Amino acid sequence: MAGLAEQVATPEAGGAGKASAPEYQGALGALSVNASLTDVLARGIEELRAAEAAGDLKETARCHLAVAEASRRLGRTDEADRAWKAGYRTARAAGHAGSMAWALWSGGTLARQRGAFRLAYRLLALAAEWGERGGDIVVRGYSLAGLAETGRIQGDYAAVEELHEQLLAEARRRGEARHTVWALEGIAQMHRNTGAYDRAHALFAEAAEIAERAEDHRGWAWALRGMADVVSVRDGDVAQALALLTRAEAACQAMDLRGALAFNHKMRGNVLYRAGRYEEARDLYTRALAEFRDMTEPRGTALSRLGLAKARARLGRDSAETAAELATLRDQFNRIGLHHAREMVDKAAAELGVGPLPGPGTAAVTPPDAYRTEALRATDVAGLR
To answer: Does the record's keyword annotation contain Zinc-finger (predicted)?
Structure first.
């Protein structure tokens, strides 16, 4: 099959229209990308019952997808798991490759959210494959992006940096605002984590501008969060960072973006911690921790615990207790497979003067390089160049 760039008409270079939500399909296709997730879930369940009653397998699969995605973003992971699997079974029974791909994409995204990275790679690679078989270039692109994001979250920047850049170029050519914003934010996050703060801020700012113009409130909120992080760590500008987070928080609340809201609260804790406002930081980390635990979100839970451990140490917690908790968190990050986060634990131990940490400190358990390479090869990313 031809590469993505050969399959679609190319709009004016750099152009981008209004953001859309291709995961809302069929009877739900008119829903806005900014629709309240609670409303999406209610509408999805309603249309699902109607599709099942009519015996329409394709429409039933589409409704399962909307239910799965709304549930996932609301933190209802068990419901999301049941919905995407039901959608996949229904799509398979209907013999519809595109709907199978969308269900697999949803399942892979959920697996990443739950910290099951090996499963995420497998499902997202299959989603890209079935998207290509079915001629659905949108789900194929979403699946490629999911693979790139999975590697980035794990800290495998060398493995996925090129894919991020390729996806950004493709999104710009096609004028897809939502994916342009996603790619810019992913690349910006890698620059931020490697200390290239000016470049990171410029990319986050560009993402925020495109998202605002395209009325992509979710992407805009994530971009503001990234800008706040850089402004805090680079400039020490607490007031501006908090103001950016407040604006982003309002967007998250309007759409019921519970995961994004929890990450917003954790970032607010980071900003306050850097400013030496440890009691306020402790309270924000505690709040974020409860939110992540309520969603069964292991990455956010562990990162909030790390921030909380640091704030408590600054407030006088016994150094041995701090060291023990950091060692536990290091092992947890190892099990999840988060390279960058594990490095953050080591830096925290040095910063707080409690190292070396007890325990073996074994290497992170991640999918073997050969497996990641196989997953990426299955998507034929060369077609994006």
So the answer is: no
Of the candidates 103, 48, 100, 59, the one whose C-alpha atom is nearest the C-alpha of residue 81 is 103
Vertex 322 angle, CA 320 and 326, to 5°: 120
CATH topology (fold) of 20-138: 1.25.40
Q: What is the DSSP letter of 296?
A: T
CA distance 293 to 295: 5
**What tokens appear for 268 in the block?**
């607010």
Task: Compute the distance between CA of residue 74 and CA of residue 136 in angstroms, rounded to an integer.
Answer: 27
Specify whether the CB–CB gap between 164 and 152 falls below 8 A. Answer: yes
Exposure of 32 by Cβ count < 10 A (0-12 exposed, 13-18 middle, 19+ buried)? middle
48-60 pLDDT per residue, tens = 999 999 999 999 9
Tens digits of residue pLDDT in 151-166: 999 988 888 989 999 9
Q: 331-344 burial by CB neighbour count: b if 16+ within 10 A, else e?
A: bbbbebbbbbbbeb
Q: Residue 37 belongs to what H/E stretch?
A: helix 37-54
